[in-house]
């Protein structure tokens, strides 16, 4: 079959380690299923700042644009935290989203049965939780005008949050499309009792909903959603929301599953191109110790297979392998009850590959 | 002693019921401690829209301004949800905050030992949770310019988020002051890796921190805070944040305690004046059935005694009475395990008064 080109951005902290295991999974997929991948590494984040003086070098951007998909580890660390804005890893992250037109961030938050105990929520509350947060990723207060000014009472800072009908329409459509493939329930989160952007958001979502008569639509205020995620997580199917609210709620949702080391994410634009990364961060405190959990990154590869390449057979093989390995009691430190029995990053990767 | 004037705004839904029980507590306090209160009722919220055509009539505002403190039930309900902005209860709420200069919202989120089971979090995680969220209440995206415009891609909506040094300073000082009376730990929540207002927020908080060398200050990004509240709630003491983040995080914090029917709040300005209200809303679905839980409103009176009047003896008597009544197994429906044994609103109120 056709060769698929994957841009590989290891990034910082544990990023390169976990991506290393995901690359082994790609290779195993070639052997097992006959798919062909071409991978090319690029510098991104803190390491790119160190080596190229910018978190998102032009050659990395060109590499991503020439690829069919991007696999990202994680970026950031204390080393760059006090840099000026242009020299911070997260600026690269915002840049790559904007430059590649990745307007939609998709984060499944599901509970791994064997890990239910890792959550701080009661198991009976979590039971059956399997939701997806669809977050708008290139608009809102993240990308609006930002400045300082002299106000009536001295210095002020300003951020602007703007949303166009078009931006809301395309993310709403994507959320409805995803809901159609699942439980056909969509919760649209806004703050329409206060924000003008939220009022437009709600208007547009209601209009788009007419195209999806089978989907049950609920509007929920962001503060209430933060509560309901705790009270009735399993009642949610797909949640769609704007950039800033999505940042907060998707992290809350991820944490409540207790499976944060296991969660993958996709950032999508028009067409099938996508950027895939684990939800967890760069964890600089444990980098280089070979104890990080590679499962979220491996599952990000499965998500890439499903959403960008349509390789559902290979995706299923990965997902089943992960479940089998976990069910057999294998754990990395982050999810181990008995830490002394924890596997290393590559031991976990090898077991998953063997189970594929 | 001096007569204290309290403006009483019952509002909508269960508001008037729960406020009714709080008024009994005021009366009992007069008998027991010799303090004198003068109460005057005002129309506010949906009921004011119905009777006066505006959620915050001028006479209600004048009443509040002439009072030493305001006791509020709750506002809102489906009846007014589709009204235009000026005719919605929440517009009254935003208006009263701005007009009375209530720049600080204080929400204790503590766990009642006898109610730990009501939380969806594991009891061992909740153990010892006792935090306060200090939310900036009259700035940020809530009060910035809002409009629609024709953009490059058609209609857009815009919200503006602005913060001045002065606004950040006064809320930071208040949070530090509160931290000094408690565990001397302050978590300042922002999104300084993305927002200009957050960068200014962090700068100012760091500057104000110099005045409070004894307080241990932590800066935490809002998405991370949404996670850490779930992971280690008991590690927080005081959390300070801007208006929108505070709306979300204070509701998350309230819900995780499992005690949302029990939580009180204060909105304060310069000086001792304050508005006190339960954290729970107007619950229109159960209004008029006399089954609502009056404890949050009764504890809001205790908070008023502490923060506005300095009546610590009476506050303690109320707080102890609530604990005693709960420890004896008395419950309203919302917190009852066996709903058939639940008390009515006024039965609960009477028991608390008797225990004072
Ligand atoms: C690092 C930061 C800019 C980023 C965001 O806020 O989008 C991160 O929190 C995320 O969710 O991917
Ligand atoms: C009703 C609404 C405007 C209000 C807010 O967002 O401030 C409420 O959620 C609150 O927290 O008091």
Automatic annotation (TrEMBL), chains A, B:
Signal peptide: none annotated. Substrate binds at residues 97, 107, 135, 223. Residues 5-352 form the Isopropylmalate dehydrogenase-like domain. SUPFAM superfamilies: Isocitrate/Isopropylmalate dehydrogenase-like. It comes from the Bacteria. It catalyses: (2R,3S)-3-isopropylmalate + NAD(+) = 4-methyl-2-oxopentanoate + CO2 + NADH. Binds 1 Mg(2+) or Mn(2+) ion per subunit. Its EC number is 1.1.1.85. GO terms for molecular function: 3-isopropylmalate dehydrogenase activity. Mg(2+) binds at residues 223, 247, 251. InterPro entries: IsoCit/isopropylmalate_DH_CS, IsoPropMal-DH-like_dom, Isopropylmalate_DH. PROSITE patterns: IDH_IMDH. Pathway: Amino-acid biosynthesis; L-leucine biosynthesis; L-leucine from 3-methyl-2-oxobutanoate: step 3/4. Homodimer. PANTHER family: 3-ISOPROPYLMALATE DEHYDROGENASE (PTHR42979:SF1). Catalyzes the oxidation of 3-carboxy-2-hydroxy-4-methylpentanoate (3-isopropylmalate) to 3-carboxy-4-methyl-2-oxopentanoate. The product decarboxylates to 4-methyl-2 oxopentanoate. This is 3-isopropylmalate dehydrogenase. The gene is leuB.
